[in-house]
Amino acid sequence: MTAEQAPCVLVLRALGLGDLLAGVPALRGIRRAFPGHRIVLAQPPGLTELALASGAVDAVFPAEAPGRAVPGLRHWPGPPPDVAVDLHGNGPESRDALAALRPRRLLAHACPDGPPWPARVNERDRWCAFLRAYGIPADPRDLRLPRPATPSPAPGAVVVHPGAASASRRWPAERFAAVVRCLRAAGHRVVLTGGPGEDDLVREVAERGGRPGGDVFTGGLPPGPLSALIAGAALLLSGDTGLAHLAVAHGTRSVTLFGPVSPRLWGPPPGPDHVALWKPGPPGDPHGATTDARLLRIGTGEVAAACLTLLRDTRARRRATGEEVAHAH
Does the pTM of the predicted model rise above 0.90? Predict the structure, then answer.
Protein backbone atom coordinates (compact mmCIF):
# COMPACT_ATOMS: atom_id res chain seq x y z
CA MET A 1 0.00 0.00 0.00
CA THR A 2 1.40 3.43 -0.97
CA ALA A 3 1.20 6.43 1.34
CA GLU A 4 -1.60 7.85 -0.80
CA GLN A 5 -3.59 4.59 -0.46
CA ALA A 6 -3.33 4.50 3.34
CA PRO A 7 -6.42 5.49 5.32
CA CYS A 8 -6.43 9.20 6.10
CA VAL A 9 -6.82 11.25 9.26
CA LEU A 10 -7.79 14.81 8.34
CA VAL A 11 -7.11 17.38 11.06
CA LEU A 12 -8.58 20.89 10.81
CA ARG A 13 -6.56 23.68 12.41
CA ALA A 14 -6.59 26.42 9.79
CA LEU A 15 -5.22 29.21 11.96
CA GLY A 16 -1.92 31.07 12.41
CA LEU A 17 1.69 30.31 13.33
CA GLY A 18 1.14 30.34 17.08
CA ASP A 19 -1.92 28.14 16.74
CA LEU A 20 0.01 25.60 14.68
CA LEU A 21 2.85 25.42 17.20
CA ALA A 22 0.51 25.26 20.20
CA GLY A 23 -1.21 22.37 18.43
CA VAL A 24 1.96 20.34 17.80
CA PRO A 25 1.60 18.23 21.00
CA ALA A 26 -1.93 17.25 19.98
CA LEU A 27 -0.85 16.53 16.40
CA ARG A 28 1.91 14.26 17.69
CA GLY A 29 -0.64 12.44 19.84
CA ILE A 30 -2.74 11.84 16.72
CA ARG A 31 0.34 10.67 14.82
CA ARG A 32 1.13 8.05 17.49
CA ALA A 33 -2.51 6.94 17.78
CA PHE A 34 -2.82 6.27 14.03
CA PRO A 35 0.57 4.92 12.91
CA GLY A 36 -0.83 3.28 9.79
CA HIS A 37 -2.77 6.34 8.63
CA ARG A 38 -1.75 9.28 6.48
CA ILE A 39 -2.07 12.40 8.65
CA VAL A 40 -3.21 15.44 6.67
CA LEU A 41 -3.48 18.87 8.27
CA ALA A 42 -5.92 21.43 6.85
CA GLN A 43 -4.19 24.77 7.41
CA PRO A 44 -2.86 27.84 5.54
CA PRO A 45 -0.34 26.71 2.90
CA GLY A 46 2.23 29.29 4.04
CA LEU A 47 2.84 27.21 7.18
CA THR A 48 3.48 23.96 5.31
CA GLU A 49 7.23 23.87 5.96
CA LEU A 50 6.85 24.19 9.72
CA ALA A 51 3.98 21.71 9.86
CA LEU A 52 6.03 19.07 8.07
CA ALA A 53 9.06 19.86 10.23
CA SER A 54 7.06 18.80 13.28
CA GLY A 55 7.08 15.22 12.04
CA ALA A 56 3.44 14.95 13.08
CA VAL A 57 1.83 15.30 9.67
CA ASP A 58 2.45 13.77 6.26
CA ALA A 59 0.84 16.45 4.12
CA VAL A 60 -0.92 19.81 4.26
CA PHE A 61 -4.31 20.44 2.69
CA PRO A 62 -4.54 24.19 1.86
CA ALA A 63 -7.35 25.78 3.85
CA GLU A 64 -7.66 29.32 5.17
CA ALA A 65 -10.22 32.01 5.84
CA PRO A 66 -10.04 35.63 7.05
CA GLY A 67 -9.44 36.11 10.75
CA ARG A 68 -10.18 32.97 12.69
CA ALA A 69 -13.15 31.94 10.55
CA VAL A 70 -13.70 28.37 9.45
CA PRO A 71 -12.61 27.71 5.86
CA GLY A 72 -14.62 25.60 3.46
CA LEU A 73 -13.25 22.12 2.77
CA ARG A 74 -15.34 21.27 -0.30
CA HIS A 75 -12.19 21.16 -2.45
CA TRP A 76 -11.01 18.03 -0.59
CA PRO A 77 -9.83 15.83 -3.49
CA GLY A 78 -9.89 12.31 -2.09
CA PRO A 79 -12.38 9.82 -0.70
CA PRO A 80 -13.92 10.56 2.70
CA PRO A 81 -11.30 10.60 5.49
CA ASP A 82 -11.27 7.58 7.75
CA VAL A 83 -11.06 9.92 10.75
CA ALA A 84 -11.60 13.69 10.94
CA VAL A 85 -10.40 15.70 13.95
CA ASP A 86 -11.55 19.24 14.74
CA LEU A 87 -8.70 21.13 16.41
CA HIS A 88 -9.99 24.44 15.04
CA GLY A 89 -12.56 25.38 17.65
CA ASN A 90 -15.58 24.29 19.63
CA GLY A 91 -18.44 25.47 17.45
CA PRO A 92 -20.66 23.74 14.95
CA GLU A 93 -19.05 25.54 11.97
CA SER A 94 -15.75 23.65 12.11
CA ARG A 95 -17.50 20.40 13.02
CA ASP A 96 -19.88 20.80 10.08
CA ALA A 97 -17.06 21.58 7.63
CA LEU A 98 -15.48 18.22 8.49
CA ALA A 99 -18.80 16.36 8.68
CA ALA A 100 -19.60 17.46 5.12
CA LEU A 101 -16.72 15.21 3.94
CA ARG A 102 -18.52 12.17 5.47
CA PRO A 103 -15.64 10.75 7.52
CA ARG A 104 -16.12 7.34 9.09
CA ARG A 105 -15.42 8.88 12.51
CA LEU A 106 -15.48 12.53 13.60
CA LEU A 107 -13.85 13.86 16.77
CA ALA A 108 -15.01 17.35 17.75
CA HIS A 109 -16.02 19.31 20.82
CA ALA A 110 -19.36 20.04 19.12
CA CYS A 111 -20.15 16.34 18.55
CA PRO A 112 -22.66 14.69 20.88
CA ASP A 113 -19.86 12.52 22.32
CA GLY A 114 -17.39 15.43 22.45
CA PRO A 115 -15.89 16.51 25.77
CA PRO A 116 -16.95 19.82 27.38
CA TRP A 117 -15.01 22.90 26.33
CA PRO A 118 -12.65 24.11 29.10
CA ALA A 119 -12.75 27.89 29.13
CA ARG A 120 -9.63 29.04 31.00
CA VAL A 121 -6.80 26.62 30.24
CA ASN A 122 -3.60 26.85 28.24
CA GLU A 123 -4.09 26.13 24.55
CA ARG A 124 -1.64 23.19 24.55
CA ASP A 125 -3.37 21.61 27.54
CA ARG A 126 -6.81 22.18 26.02
CA TRP A 127 -6.24 20.10 22.90
CA CYS A 128 -4.26 17.36 24.61
CA ALA A 129 -7.12 16.97 27.10
CA PHE A 130 -9.57 16.88 24.19
CA LEU A 131 -7.72 13.94 22.65
CA ARG A 132 -7.39 12.14 25.98
CA ALA A 133 -11.18 12.28 26.32
CA TYR A 134 -11.27 10.15 23.16
CA GLY A 135 -8.65 7.75 24.52
CA ILE A 136 -5.73 9.29 22.61
CA PRO A 137 -2.72 10.09 24.83
CA ALA A 138 -1.06 13.46 24.15
CA ASP A 139 1.62 15.31 26.13
CA PRO A 140 1.44 19.14 26.14
CA ARG A 141 5.21 19.25 26.75
CA ASP A 142 5.91 17.50 23.43
CA LEU A 143 6.34 20.74 21.51
CA ARG A 144 9.96 21.02 20.37
CA LEU A 145 10.88 21.31 16.70
CA PRO A 146 14.15 20.00 15.22
CA ARG A 147 16.82 22.57 14.47
CA PRO A 148 16.46 23.83 10.88
CA ALA A 149 19.02 22.79 8.29
CA THR A 150 19.02 26.38 6.98
CA PRO A 151 21.76 28.49 8.63
CA SER A 152 20.66 31.47 10.69
CA PRO A 153 21.01 34.86 8.97
CA ALA A 154 22.13 36.36 12.32
CA PRO A 155 23.54 33.64 14.62
CA GLY A 156 23.75 34.54 18.28
CA ALA A 157 21.82 37.79 17.91
CA VAL A 158 18.99 39.09 20.06
CA VAL A 159 15.86 39.13 17.91
CA VAL A 160 13.34 41.88 18.65
CA HIS A 161 9.92 41.54 17.02
CA PRO A 162 7.80 44.64 17.80
CA GLY A 163 4.75 43.73 15.71
CA ALA A 164 1.57 41.85 16.44
CA ALA A 165 -1.58 41.03 14.51
CA SER A 166 -3.66 43.53 16.50
CA ALA A 167 -2.89 46.86 18.13
CA SER A 168 -4.06 45.66 21.53
CA ARG A 169 -1.07 43.27 21.70
CA ARG A 170 1.47 45.79 20.34
CA TRP A 171 3.80 47.41 22.90
CA PRO A 172 4.72 51.00 21.86
CA ALA A 173 7.55 51.36 19.33
CA GLU A 174 9.44 53.88 21.46
CA ARG A 175 9.57 51.40 24.33
CA PHE A 176 10.93 48.64 22.12
CA ALA A 177 13.52 51.13 20.86
CA ALA A 178 14.57 52.02 24.41
CA VAL A 179 15.18 48.33 25.18
CA VAL A 180 17.08 47.93 21.90
CA ARG A 181 19.41 50.80 22.90
CA CYS A 182 19.96 49.19 26.29
CA LEU A 183 20.80 45.80 24.80
CA ARG A 184 23.21 47.29 22.28
CA ALA A 185 24.88 49.35 24.99
CA ALA A 186 25.44 46.07 26.87
CA GLY A 187 27.28 44.68 23.82
CA HIS A 188 24.60 42.52 22.24
CA ARG A 189 23.88 42.35 18.54
CA VAL A 190 20.19 43.14 18.02
CA VAL A 191 18.23 42.37 14.86
CA LEU A 192 14.69 43.49 14.17
CA THR A 193 12.00 41.50 12.40
CA GLY A 194 8.50 42.24 11.25
CA GLY A 195 5.72 40.49 9.47
CA PRO A 196 4.04 41.57 6.24
CA GLY A 197 2.82 45.16 6.50
CA GLU A 198 5.04 45.98 9.49
CA ASP A 199 8.00 47.54 7.65
CA ASP A 200 7.28 51.07 8.90
CA LEU A 201 7.09 49.86 12.49
CA VAL A 202 10.35 47.92 12.22
CA ARG A 203 12.16 50.86 10.64
CA GLU A 204 10.84 53.20 13.32
CA VAL A 205 12.17 50.96 16.10
CA ALA A 206 15.48 50.62 14.25
CA GLU A 207 15.85 54.38 13.88
CA ARG A 208 14.87 55.15 17.45
CA GLY A 209 17.07 52.27 18.61
CA GLY A 210 20.18 53.87 17.14
CA ARG A 211 20.81 51.74 14.07
CA PRO A 212 18.65 52.90 11.17
CA GLY A 213 18.86 50.50 8.24
CA GLY A 214 21.11 48.02 10.02
CA ASP A 215 20.21 44.49 11.11
CA VAL A 216 16.63 44.84 9.96
CA PHE A 217 14.55 42.09 8.32
CA THR A 218 11.52 43.66 6.68
CA GLY A 219 8.77 42.23 4.54
CA GLY A 220 8.28 39.11 6.60
CA LEU A 221 10.91 36.39 6.39
CA PRO A 222 9.79 33.10 4.78
CA PRO A 223 9.15 30.29 7.30
CA GLY A 224 12.48 28.53 6.71
CA PRO A 225 14.82 31.50 7.30
CA LEU A 226 12.55 32.78 10.09
CA SER A 227 12.71 29.43 11.88
CA ALA A 228 16.50 29.37 11.45
CA LEU A 229 16.80 32.93 12.77
CA ILE A 230 14.86 32.13 15.94
CA ALA A 231 16.57 28.76 16.45
CA GLY A 232 20.00 30.43 16.27
CA ALA A 233 19.15 33.47 18.40
CA ALA A 234 20.43 34.18 21.88
CA LEU A 235 17.03 35.59 22.85
CA LEU A 236 13.69 36.64 21.38
CA LEU A 237 11.86 39.71 22.68
CA SER A 238 8.33 40.02 21.35
CA GLY A 239 4.71 40.53 22.17
CA ASP A 240 2.15 37.75 22.33
CA THR A 241 2.69 36.52 18.75
CA GLY A 242 3.50 33.38 16.81
CA LEU A 243 7.24 34.06 17.09
CA ALA A 244 7.05 33.60 20.85
CA HIS A 245 5.75 30.06 20.24
CA LEU A 246 8.54 29.49 17.71
CA ALA A 247 11.13 30.40 20.35
CA VAL A 248 9.63 27.83 22.72
CA ALA A 249 9.59 25.23 19.94
CA HIS A 250 13.31 25.78 19.29
CA GLY A 251 14.38 26.10 22.92
CA THR A 252 15.43 29.73 22.40
CA ARG A 253 15.19 31.89 25.49
CA SER A 254 12.47 34.50 25.30
CA VAL A 255 10.83 37.48 26.94
CA THR A 256 7.19 37.83 25.93
CA LEU A 257 4.96 40.81 26.71
CA PHE A 258 1.32 39.98 27.40
CA GLY A 259 -1.57 42.42 27.64
CA PRO A 260 -5.20 41.49 26.96
CA VAL A 261 -4.63 37.73 27.31
CA SER A 262 -3.06 36.06 30.32
CA PRO A 263 0.07 33.98 29.72
CA ARG A 264 -1.73 31.19 31.56
CA LEU A 265 -3.77 30.74 28.39
CA TRP A 266 -1.22 31.29 25.61
CA GLY A 267 2.12 31.67 27.36
CA PRO A 268 5.21 29.48 27.43
CA PRO A 269 5.47 26.42 29.65
CA PRO A 270 6.93 27.06 33.11
CA GLY A 271 10.71 27.13 33.23
CA PRO A 272 13.73 29.42 33.57
CA ASP A 273 14.28 29.99 29.84
CA HIS A 274 11.06 31.90 29.13
CA VAL A 275 9.85 35.03 30.91
CA ALA A 276 6.24 36.12 30.41
CA LEU A 277 5.63 39.68 31.62
CA TRP A 278 2.02 40.55 32.40
CA LYS A 279 0.06 42.80 34.74
CA PRO A 280 -3.01 41.02 36.13
CA GLY A 281 -6.41 42.42 35.41
CA PRO A 282 -9.72 41.64 33.71
CA PRO A 283 -9.39 40.01 30.29
CA GLY A 284 -9.13 42.41 27.38
CA ASP A 285 -9.76 42.18 23.65
CA PRO A 286 -6.87 40.37 21.91
CA HIS A 287 -8.10 41.78 18.59
CA GLY A 288 -8.64 45.36 19.82
CA ALA A 289 -7.68 48.50 17.91
CA THR A 290 -5.76 50.21 20.74
CA THR A 291 -2.92 49.07 22.95
CA ASP A 292 -4.23 47.19 25.98
CA ALA A 293 -3.93 49.02 29.29
CA ARG A 294 -2.22 46.06 30.98
CA LEU A 295 0.43 46.01 28.26
CA LEU A 296 1.11 49.72 28.80
CA ARG A 297 1.80 49.04 32.48
CA ILE A 298 4.91 47.05 31.52
CA GLY A 299 7.89 49.41 31.71
CA THR A 300 11.08 49.47 29.65
CA GLY A 301 13.29 48.94 32.70
CA GLU A 302 11.42 45.77 33.61
CA VAL A 303 11.74 44.40 30.07
CA ALA A 304 15.43 45.30 29.70
CA ALA A 305 16.24 43.70 33.06
CA ALA A 306 14.47 40.48 32.09
CA CYS A 307 16.34 40.34 28.77
CA LEU A 308 19.75 41.05 30.29
CA THR A 309 19.25 38.46 33.01
CA LEU A 310 18.46 35.73 30.49
CA LEU A 311 21.33 36.84 28.26
CA ARG A 312 23.80 36.65 31.13
CA ASP A 313 22.64 33.10 31.77
CA THR A 314 23.01 32.28 28.07
CA ARG A 315 26.56 33.66 27.88
CA ALA A 316 27.58 31.79 31.01
CA ARG A 317 26.22 28.54 29.62
CA ARG A 318 27.98 29.02 26.28
CA ARG A 319 31.29 29.87 27.96
CA ALA A 320 30.96 26.72 30.04
CA THR A 321 30.47 24.59 26.91
CA GLY A 322 33.07 26.42 24.82
CA GLU A 323 30.45 27.55 22.29
CA GLU A 324 31.36 30.72 20.44
CA VAL A 325 28.76 33.33 19.67
CA ALA A 326 29.05 35.86 16.89
CA HIS A 327 28.43 39.43 18.00
CA ALA A 328 28.18 42.64 16.06
CA HIS A 329 27.29 46.01 17.46
Answer: yes
